[in-house]
Each structure stands twice: as structure tokens, then as C-alpha cells.
Amino acid sequence: MEFNVTRDGLTLAGIYEPAPQPNGTIAILMHGFTGNRGYTDTALLVQLAEHLREIGVGTVRFDFNGHGNSDGDFINMTVLNEIADAQAVLTAVQTRLAPKQIDLLGHSQGGVVASMLAGYYPDLIHKLVLMAPAATLKDDAIAGHTRGLIYDPHHIPAQLPMDNGKVLGGFYLRTAQLLPIYETAQNYTGPVCLIHGDADNIVSNHASQRYDNVYQNSTFHLIPGASHRLDGTARKTVLQLATDFISD
Q1: Is the CB of residue 12 less than 8 Å from the CB of residue 70?
Q2: Cβ–Cβ under 8 Å, residues 70 and 61
Q3: What pLDDT shows up at residue 50?
Q4: Would 170 disulfide with which of 134, 156, 220, 238, CB 3.0-4.6 Å?
Q5: Quick check: 228 pLDDT over 90?
Q6: Which residues contact residue 233 at a Cβ distance below 8 angstroms, ignoring those fewer than 6 apart?
Q7: Model confidence band, residue 168 (pLDDT cutoffs 50, 70, 90)
Q8: Is pLDDT of 248 > 90?
Q9: Nearest residue to 34 via CA among 69, 67, 83, 82
Q10: Are 59 and 17 in contact, with CB atoms under 8 Å apart?
Q11: Phi/psi of residue 174, nearest 5 degrees
Q12: What's the average model confidence in pLDDT over 140-160?
């Protein structure tokens, strides 16, 4: 069912799918950079939500601002306002659904957002799953190369056209350079499941290894041959790892 959330005048397009036999847990799923909440049967978050509902976990998926069917322009998107999006969804889940427990699962940049949101709300988040979390976005911004874009990191332009037709805002990169990703994430001390592919050529698995080092209660799974999309033969493994972790 529709689960739209308003944040600073923007409507975020969300969907709530209750479990047939609910166990009181709601999982909030977060997509990556230029992605969406999933609109096809082959989408990672769609498949993940399906598996979670089978074990009694209701799911909420949403499009970040400037993505999918949500309001906003991609050029204005930053990790900071995606955290604000996620916080608004978290509050809506609390107030509208009143679950016993809330879990967060994020892929790529959505993993960064989930990790930082859990750091801000360690008392509210039950479990955390980070799939190919893109914490290297900070290092990339500092170095001056982001998803195929090359720029002077000390003089970032206001707009950077991307190959996919989207335009990345310079403020995204300026804020990315200063994000306290791991410093914030480590404030969460609950159970964490880290999943990364060793063939990920977009986000080095060192990002997950570093998360594993700063967390107090984490498990790191490095999947042989898996790409950043965690698709192909690796998808079944990813779905099983995440579902087993949430159900345990």
C-alpha cells in the first residue's frame, strides 16, 4: 500500500508491504545513488522485501528525493538530505505502524545513509544490514573523481553533467568531502550484517572492511565474484544472508 512521506515540502514516494504473518518488525529499505525503491521483480530491494515478508517482517521502501517517483531534483540531492529523507520515513514508520522493532537495510549510498541514521538513532534501530555500502564516496570526492566525473576537488563547479543524462550538484561533492561517515556509524552498537562483493569495481570492499573494524557487533561477508549490483549468481546468497540475519 502507498506509504508517502512529506519532508520539507517534498513528497517521498513510498510503499508499505505488510507481512502475511507479522512478527512485529518493520524493515526500512534504502536504495543507492541514481537508483530507486525497485519497480521490477528483478530489483534487489523488491526481492529482499519479498524474502523478509516471508519471515514475518513488514517492509517499507521509498525513493529518495530526486529519484524514482519522489519530488525534488537530482541536482539538489546530497547524502545529508537523504539522511533527512530517511529520518522522515523512520518517524512515519514509528507513528503510523507502531512496530515492536525497526530494522534498516541499505544498498550502496543507501547503506551509507542507513549506517549514519542508525548512528543517530541507536536506541531505535534493532538490526542493520549494509550491502556494498558506498562509504568511499567521501574519498572519491576528496580525490576529485566520482562515478566517472573528474573535477578539481578544491574548486568544485556548481553542476557536473553525468553520462546518464543526470546533473550532479556541486554541493553534493562539497558535503561529501566532510561527511563523518564512520564516526557517526560507530555510535550504533547493535547487530550489523555487512555484505560486499570482491568484484565490486564501483565501491571497494575496503569500505565494508572499515565498517567491520569500527562496529562492535558486526559480521562481514565477502562474496566471491559479486559485483556492486550484487546480481547474477550472487543474488541468492545476498538474499539468504540478509534474511537469515534479520530472522536470527
Answers
A1: yes
A2: no
A3: 98
A4: 156
A5: yes
A6: 225
A7: very high
A8: no
A9: 67
A10: yes
A11: -65, -45
A12: 97
Cell 536470527 found at:
248
Closest alpha carbon to 119 in 187, 192, 178: 187
> Are 102 and 126 in contact, with CB atoms under 8 Å apart?
yes
Q: From CA 145, how far away is CA 229, in angstroms rounded?
A: 20
How buried is residue 141: exposed, middle or buried, by Cβ count under 10 Å (0-12/13-18/19+)? buried
> Using alpha carbons only, what angle is made at residue 152 by residues 150 and 156, rounded to the nearest 5 degrees?
100
Q: Are 52 and 246 in contact (CB under 8 A)?
A: yes
What's the CATH superfamily of 5-247? Alpha/Beta hydrolase fold, catalytic domain (3.40.50.1820)
What gap in Å lies between CA 19 and CA 56, rounded to an integer?
A: 5
Give dist(CA 246, CA 104) in Å, integer. 10
- DSSP per-residue string spanning the chain: -B--EEETTEEE-EEEE--SS--SEEEEEE--TT--S--STT-HHHHHHHHHHHTT-EEEEEPPTTSTTSSS-GGG--HHHHHHHHHHHHHHIIIII--SEEEEEEETHHHHHHHHHHHH-TTTEEEEEEES--THHHHHHHHTEETTEE--TTS--SEEE-TTS-EEEHHHHHHHTT--HHHHHTT--S-EEEEEETT-SSS-THHHHHHHHH-SSEEEEEETT--TT--TTHHHHHHHHHHHHHH-
Exposure string of 13-44, with b = 16+ CB inside 10 Å and e = fewer, is bbbbbebeeeeebbbbbbbbbbbbbbeeeebb
